[in-house]
Task: inverse folding
């Protein structure tokens, strides 16, 4: 089949998932065409059957805010016509689903691809509640040929928040770990690590990630010199520098911004720490599971669908830093339990959230919406 994929190109779960899906589909013999304003950061340069179509945005003095949706839809329509796309699979509804619906309606009926929309999280939980976006998202979902959500929790939220009553198929995320570029020793040297337990937090630092709670939790860990908190930040960490200082964490927190080679750091982590208010899935927990370490996270959103509490990670039903710190301390101080949990996490990741388990579900969905090609 010929499949178009639209996604955000920058460091972030929906783009990582979309890129991995495209790569896997191309490996399985499909033609895959990516659309974005920049090349997705994990998209290989020269893989067979994998193409990238940049969306060019011109600036016009009349526009205070440049528009992306229309040039994206035009590019999707052009490529659909030229390459006879069967499916346009859009990741994150805004604005990709609206652009795909528009692209489809620009084409004659015999050239119209089917539109599959995958909801990732805040496209429902945040933008879905925004009166300036909600109705447009609802409309794009009703006009999509299929809608998927990355967790059962997100499906329920989509029904509740958007009042969407069409079918939503739950297809969990998957992850394909890549070989680290550098050795463990080289990365540990770069970070100046001795024998501390390495806690890893990887996120875009948005308010719902609760970086305040992350740092308050770190400040309560004991012994103080028994850990380092490595933050892989997809945005500037500068707004949190004062908190790090206030909490006396300057020698405990190491920040790396906009890291592309996440595997380099995943390979040296011992425990993941996620303090988000909500997460539809939390791909960064899954990344850790593939590298054999458990995460401590709040019992929110779709996280319980990913983590089996006390078996493949630890879930905390509280937003109190003392409670979170107790759970992290438990893992810092019990390396045997931590390692056993990490092994169980890796097994669960391979069984439930591998490309082999998940990609055939998308292929079956594409065949279904295309009437059994
Ligand atoms: O929704 C977002 O905040 C962005 C999005 C992304 O592009 O990283 O994250 C969402 O999609 C990820 C991939 O499916 C999920 O792992 C994240 O849990 C989800 N974020 C939220 O639900 C807050």
Result:
């Amino acid at each position: 089949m010929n499949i178009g994929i639209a996604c955000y190109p920058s460091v972030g779960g929906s783009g990582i998932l979309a890129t991995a899906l495209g790569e896997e589909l191309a490996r399985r013999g499909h033609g895959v065409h990516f659309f974005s304003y920049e090349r997705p950061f994990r998209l290989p340069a020269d893989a067979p059957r994998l193409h990238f179509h940049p969306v060019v945005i011109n600036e016009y003095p009349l526009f205070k805010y440049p528009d992306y949706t229309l040039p994206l839809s035009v590019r999707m329509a052009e490529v659909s016509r030229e390459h006879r796309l069967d499916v346009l699979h859009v990741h994150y509804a805004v604005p990709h689903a609206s652009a795909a619906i528009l692209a489809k309606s620009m084409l004659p009926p015999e050239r119209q691809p089917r539109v599959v929309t995958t909801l990732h999280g805040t496209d429902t939980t945040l933008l879905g509640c925004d009166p300036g976006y909600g109705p447009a998202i609802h409309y794009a979902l009703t006009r999509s040929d299929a809608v998927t959500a990355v967790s059962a929790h997100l499906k329920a939220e989509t029904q509740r928040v958007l009042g969407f009553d069409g079918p939503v198929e739950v297809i969990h995320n998957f992850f394909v770990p890549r070989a680290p570029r550098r050795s463990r020793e080289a990365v540990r040297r770069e970070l100046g690590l001795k024998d501390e337990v390495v806690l890893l937090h990887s996120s875009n630092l948005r308010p719902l990630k609760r970086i305040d709670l992350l740092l308050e939790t770190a400040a309560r860990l004991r012994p103080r010199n028994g850990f380092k908190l490595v933050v892989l930040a997809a945005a500037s960490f500068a707004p949190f520098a004062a908190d790090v200082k206030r909490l006396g964490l300057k020698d405990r927190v190491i920040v790396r911004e906009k890291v592309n080679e996440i595997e380099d750091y995943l390979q040296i982590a011992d425990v993941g720490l996620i303090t988000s208010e909500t997460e539809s899935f939390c791909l960064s927990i899954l990344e850790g599971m593939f590298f054999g370490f458990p995460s401590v996270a709040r019992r929110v959103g779709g996280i319980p669908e990913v983590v089996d509490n006390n078996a493949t990670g630890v879930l905390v039903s509280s937003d109190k830093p003392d409670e979170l710190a107790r759970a992290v301390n438990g893992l810092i101080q019990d390396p045997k339990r931590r390692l056993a949990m990490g092994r169980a996490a890796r097994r669960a990741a391979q069984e439930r959230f591998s490309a082999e388990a998940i990609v055939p579900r998308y292929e079956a969905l594409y065949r279904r919406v295309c009437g059994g090609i």
